[in-house]
Amino acid sequence: MNSIIFGGLAVLSLFVFFNLGKVKASKKQTDRDNRINRFGNNNPDNIIEGESEEVTNEDK
Amino acid sequence: MSKHSALNTFGRSANPAFTRGFEANTQSLPLSEQMTLDGAVNKTGILLSLCFTGAIIGWNIPSLIFPAAITGFILAMVTIFRSKEKAGSTAPLYALAQGVALGGITLMYENQFDGIAIQAIGLTFGILASLLICYKSGLIKPTENFKLMVGAGIGGIFILYMVSFVMSFFGAGISLLSPTNGSLMSIGLSIGIVCIASLSLVLDFDYIEEGVEKGLPKYMEWYGAFSLMVTLVWLYLEILRLLSKIRSR
User: Fold this and answer.
1) How far is the CA of B208 from the CAs of A2, B39, B113, B222, in angstroms?
2) CA–CA dist B166, B84 (Å, integer)
3) Most exposed residue of B3, B103, B149, B207, measured as fewest CB within 10 angstroms of its CB?
C-alpha cells in the first residue's frame, strides 16, 4: 500500500513537472517590478530618450 | 534609424561600468541558439534518468558511496565555478555519480526502515510538482528579499553541517542532526531544512524562466537542469533524514 501511494505520487508529480515545466509562467509571475534581476537589466528605462548633437570646436 | 541617435552616432560605450547591464543581454543570438523551457525540462529529464541509473548501481554496490559522492562534489564545483559552458558534459556525469551515492545511502536507510525510500522519492517529487504549480501560477513570487532569506537559511545550514563535520574528527557531533534522533527539536530542525531546500527549488524555477526570457545561450539549459538536480538531491537526502527521525520515535 505504501509503495502504491508514494509510487503513484512520484509518477503523477513527474508527469506534472514534465508538462507544466514547459509552460511559460503566468503574467502575474513575470510582469512584476520586484523580480530578481540575475542577468543584467533589460529595462528600456535605462535608455535616455532624445536627440544628441555633435559638439565641435567651432561651436565654442 | 532608431530614435536613439546618440547610440547611432557613438555606439555602445566600452566602459565596463556602463556595459555591465548589457553584457548578459544575448537577445541577439539566433532563436535556435537560445535557451528554451522545453530544453531545460528535457535536460532535467535526462539528468533524472541518469541519476536513477546511478542509483541502481549504487544500490547493488554500496561500497561506491564515498568515491561517487566525492566525484559528484568535485564535478559540481567544476560546473559552478569553472565552466558553465561545459555543463553539458559535467552535469550528466554529476547526476550519474550522485545517483550512485544516493543509491547506496538509500539502501542503508532502507535496511533500517522498510519502505522509507519510496516515501522519500514520492515526497521529493510531490514537493517539486506542487512548488512548480505555485511558481507558474504566481502564488509564490521570488523577490530579492526571498532570495536573501533562502540564501541566509542555506548559509546557516551550511555552517551547522561544517561544525558537525569538524566535530566528527574529535569523535563528537551535533545530536540534532543524527538521523536516529527522534526528539521534537531534531524533527523541527529537519522540517526547517526541508522547507529551505524546497524554497530553493522556486529560485531554480525562476532562474530557468528568467534565462529563457533573456535569451541566454543554449548551454544554460544544462546549467539550469543541473541547478535543479543539485537542489533535488539535497531535498531528497533531507527528506530521508526527516523520515528516519520520525520513524525512530
Assistant:
1) 34, 10, 36, 10
2) 31
3) B3
Task: Choose, out of B206, B228, B240, the residue to mutate when testing the contact with A (most A CBs < 10 Å).
Answer: B206
pTM for the whole structure: 0.84
Q: What does chain B come to in residues? A: 249
Residue in B164, B242, B165 with CA at minimum distance from that of residue B196: B242
Report ipTM (2 d.p.).
0.83
- The residue of chain B nearest to residue A48, with distances taken between CA atoms, is B4
* Placement of cell 556525469 in the chain: B93
pLDDT digits (tens, 9 = 90+) for B160-189: 999 999 998 888 888 888 888 889 999 999
Inter-chain CB proximity B209 and A18 less than 8 Å: no
- Highest mean pLDDT among A39-43, B3-7, B161-165 belongs to B161-165
Q: For an interface test with A, which of B25, B44, B144, B210 has the most A Cβ atoms less than 10 Å from its Cβ?
A: B210
**Chain A with chain B: Cβ pairs closer than 8 A:** 132
Chain A residues lying within 8 Å of B37, measured CB to CB: 21-24
